[in-house]
Amino acid sequence: MPSIDRKDFRRNDGHDADLGLRIPTRYRHDWALFTDWCAAADHRPVPATPETLALFLHEHPAAVATQRRRLSAINAVHTGHGYPAPGRTETVRRRLDTTRAQRLDRLSRLLLERAVELPSTGWPSGLFGRRDALLLVLAATGMTFTDLTRLRRRDLHLDDDTLQVTTRAGERFRLAPDPETGDNPAAAIYRRWAEIQAFLDQYPGTHLLRHHLTDPVEIVADPLDAEQGRQPLLCPIDRWGHLPHGQPMTAQSVSALVQAHLSGRVPVRKVLPVPSEVDTHTLVEPEIVLDPTYYDRGTAARHRDHEALENLTDVFDEIEGRADALLQDLMGVLEGL
Predict the structure, then answer these.
(1) First to last CA, the chain
(2) The pairing of beta strand 172-175 with beta strand 162-166
């Protein structure tokens, strides 16, 4: 979509008295249509949310070229006054391009099917399965991989079994239960991953986590504090099952994982046996019996070594002197060549 330079707001522009905005002449008609609709529908035109803009397009059907022109006007006014462009979001793009929306809907269903099939128990398969399942659910919304990696734990929450996601740019996605069955696999998948992060808040490290994934126990999650809320939602996992809380996944790794799950080429992670907690917590100290003469023999050895090494400095000095003499002889030979 075409953009507008800020200088265009100083030349050949009009003025929106109600909002205190300067509107370029070429955008005046489309902007007026949008603001009139916002006033009638009780929506805020600046800054407008992607949902508001999508609803505006839905209630004002027109040719694709006309809709793109309207989006250009609304985006230009926003960016010209320092606001993010609401038309550059997946919600609006789907509304504008029905063919693209149908293709993404088919892809979304396939991603959700793959997510439901992933394991949620076992070590370390359950750990990878829970993270990848949420990753696929979020990718099914159509948000970019970059936006997905920027999500923080505070950006997701459940409201009456509806999963709500807010991106860094302010775009919102709602994953609601099926209207016929009432089931919402996305909510269950999110709970499983949130449980992992809540468990690590209370018990950092992988030792107890692997027992939890083998024999899960109920976790009572406290509300996130400020530091926890800022932590990345999706973290890389190494082969030992370690999750660095402060390190987000990269867009490249997310893309590779999504493609691997879609193609069925995701690495198979075997379920490893976990030793029982009794075995890991019981430490048997071997009984050690010291020789009665242990300390006497140690003292004697130290005295003996002190006497044997007493003249070691003189030996090193002699070696250094011989090395210097050899070096001088070598220099003489080289000068005579």
Answers:
(1) 79
(2) antiparallel
For residue 234, how many other CB atoms are within 10 A of its CB? 21
pLDDT confidence bin for 16, thresholds 50/70/90: low
> What average pLDDT does range 15-40 have in this prediction?
83
SS3 labels along 211-245? HHHHCCCCCCCCCCCHHHHHCECCCCCCCCCCCCC
Helices (H) and strands (E) in the chain — how many of each? Answer: 14, 5
Alpha-carbon distance of 283 to 302, in angstroms, equals 35
Contacts of 242 (CB under 8 A, 6+ apart): 206
Whether the per-residue pLDDT at 277 is higher than 60: the answer is no
* Closest CA relative to residue 246, chosen from 158, 131, 153: 153
> C-alpha dihedral over 205, 112, 146, 49, to 10 degrees?
-120
Residue 160 backbone zone (phi > 0: left; psi -120 to 50: alpha; other: beta):
left
**pLDDT tens for each residue of 70-91:** 999 999 999 888 888 888 777 7
Q: Is residue 58 helix, strand or coil? A: helix
